[in-house]
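Fold it.
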Amino acid sequence: MGYWFGKLDRALMWAMQAIIIVANLVVTGLVLFLVLARFVLGWSVVGVLELATLAAMWLYMCGAVVAARNKEHLVVDFLSLSLTTPRARAMHELAVSLIMVILSLFFIKLAHDMVGWSIKRPQTTAALGLPLMMSQSAIVLASVLCAAYALRDLVIAAKRLNRGGGSSSTVA
């Protein structure tokens, strides 16, 4: 079973990295174009900022998924570095993982409420008329994937604590 999760994880990270690269290029290119058009050429181009914002939402949310996957989302290591015993470190890892699961479930709830509102009252962007669900779908995807990685970390931390705080597992 771990083999298939590993393959799924690698495919997911490949997709996230591709989206991040494309979104980063789109945001950079569109903002550069917007600045040049407005301040050099004196043009007022409608809709460019909306497209840049849409790409930025995907960039931020995919970045959040990659950070959650690598356990780099919320890193305050003062306490963890001061823990000396493997069992204390394992208990700390379990507590952090549990907090992340709770926060991720709250994130899913907020995304669910947002989608429910968007279905009841569909909205579009002002200039291009793009449905807001295009950017909100990035939030939904990130909430689900962050929760999945938080659950993964909780299971790993529980197993580690069960082993007495033995070796730490790393993310491939």
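The radius of gyration is 20 Å.
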